[in-house]
Amino acid sequence: MANRSLTMPFGVTEPAPRHFIHTPISRAFSGLVAALADHVEAERDISAADSRDPGFATWLLDAEAARTGVLGRIDAIRSAEVIRPEDRPLRHMAVICYLLMQAGSNAEFLEARQVLDRAPALFACPGDGAVAWRCRQMLRSTRLRIREMSALPCHIDPCEIEPDVPEIAAPVPA
Question: The organism sits in which domain of life (predicted)?
Fold first, then answer.
């Protein structure tokens, strides 16, 4: 005969305050992190491809779909109601991502990017609980995706960057 023994503690399957529970904003933001990774990967494929390559049209469609996915997730975040304080920094980061995606020049992109460094309190989740920890993780991952976006030619046009050329001094008469 077998003895009966419990292998799981009581209540482990029940939501508890110490566990992370999604809100509409955090759920959409979690999807935004994945959508940004897809966007970066699709844009990398295009930037490394030759436009005469037979697969280029498919890669271009993938990049456009990835961009649409990012903007859709951002819209979901912007339209969702803030339920807890940790939703605010997620919403702020989503607005920055929107500005970065819509930037039409290097100056606009860099200006939106600098907000992350100039106003760190807008993107901070203070606290010690599971909710604050998970939100900080999502914000950290988004910052990494933004750093990767900064290296893409669709966001930072290399032709707009002026090279650092030292001024040429006037010739000295002999």
Answer: Bacteria
